[in-house]
Amino acid sequence: MRGRDSFGFSVLPGANLHTVSRTLLALWEATDYRDRFPWVDNIKPVRDEELVASLEEACVDAVRRLKLDLVGPEELDLANVSYYRIRNDPRANQRDFLDLKSYVDRLKRDGDLNITRLKNDWIESHDADGRPIIRKSVFECLAGDLRYEGKTFVIADGEFYEVDRDFMRALDRFIDDLPIHTGLPDGRLREDEKTYNMRAAQSPDIVLLDRNTVTIDGQASPIEPCDLLSRKGQLIHIKRHVRSSTLSHLFSQGVVAAELFATNDNFRAKLRELVSSLERERARTDSTYVVGVHSLITDTPPARNAHDVVFGIIANWAGRQASDVLPFFSKLNLRQRSVELERLGFGVALAKINYS
Question: Which residues contact 47 (CB under 8 A, 6 or more apart)?
Fold first, then answer.
């Protein structure tokens, strides 16, 4: 703990503070957290004010050279986000996705690219009816890696973190080695996830499961198995944009559904019944549709690698590697979730869905 870190706790009346203090010290010195979070020791939040000031200047230079990304301010339910507004932007209502270059070009024309401007300018997300959802400064919406004095730092949500360089290289290599799933259509500007999924499911090889849930005993809430189920048995989950909080939800959703798929007979039975019902309904209106996807869901637990979990991310990929687009903490989350899925017997793939 450091100067600006705070820690508070409460004890019952009559508690032995000496014993409590020894317990707290033992917890502080414990290292068992490495079993679940082995990456923690490779990441350190930057607290030194002078270093923060230097990194802010390095951040301005990286923005000027377009070495960072803009990631929109979003609530967890991205389906509500239709477009973005940027302070003083003449194209205020036309930002379906955020482009750092157009923002920087405008600041260069104004001769006003500095840390104060980045902190004072804001980006605001809006729903389809034009109502504002959430606003954050441009500085808080920057994401990416910085090199400063031979060290590697990341910026996320307006905070700087020092990251071990070898750890970062290994993480990026893992992300870029994930298989890439192809075959899904490009996204369209101002198209929400629901509309995209419906359009993708026009393929004869995909069943639309978006907003269809399965309820089983022991689960507090219904489970959405996936957004799209392919004829090859791939469970496809779709999200727009690349903010860490929303991608965390995407990856978590994939693991929860996959674990039930692998371990819960009741879940598989109800999912097979749901898919069979959806297929019969589709066949009644489409004589060319061939029923049969439901048969991929077996009574017994699936064999290893019989199914893939595909994370489809709709973003401005522009031919870039996944490690260059995904925020640092999303890469961490994706690696952890990929390991969990592989232990469950699932393959993992990314679908880089571009805007067209």
Answer: 2, 3, 4
Looking at every residue in the chain, the average pLDDT score rounds to 88
pTM: 0.77
Sheet holding 206-208, edge to edge: 206-208, 228-230, 235-240, 308-315, 347-354
Q: Compute the distance between CA of residue 176 and CA of residue 311 in angstroms, rounded to an integer.
A: 14
- How many other C-beta atoms can be found within 10 angstroms of the C-beta atom of residue 188? 14
φ/ψ (deg, to 5) at 49: -65, -35
The one-letter amino acid at 253: Q
Distance CA(269)–CA(300), nearest Å, equals 10
Residues with Cβ within 8 Å of residue 146, at least 6 apart in sequence: 55, 58, 59, 62, 67, 68, 152, 153, 154, 155, 160
First-residue to last-residue Cα distance in the chain:
48
Q: How many CB atoms lie within 10 A of CB 111?
A: 7
- Residues shown for the chain: 356
- Strand residues in 178-246 grouped as ranges (E): 206-208, 228-230, 235-240
What is the distance between the alpha carbons of residues 273 and 112, in angstroms, rounded to a whole number?
A: 60
List C-alpha distances in Å: 23 to 7, 19, 27, 200, 303.
Answer: 14, 6, 6, 55, 45
119-139 confidence digits (pLDDT tens): 999 988 887 788 888 899 999
- The pLDDT value recorded for residue 2 is 46
Query: Which is nearest to 260 in space by CA: 296, 214, 206?
Result: 214
Q: How many CB atoms lie within 10 A of CB 146?
A: 20
Cα angle for residues 340, 305, 268 (degrees, 5° grid): 80
Structure confidence by residue, pLDDT tens digits, 143-159:
888 989 989 999 988 99
- Distance set, CA 192 to CA 80, 203, 239, 245, 326 (Å): 8, 18, 9, 18, 20
**Interaxial angle between packed helices 328-343 and 165-177, expressed in degrees from 0 to 180 and rounded to the nearest 10:** 60
Q: For helices 244-263 and 265-285, what crossing angle results, to 10°?
A: 100
Q: How far apart are CA 172 and CA 118, in angstroms?
A: 27
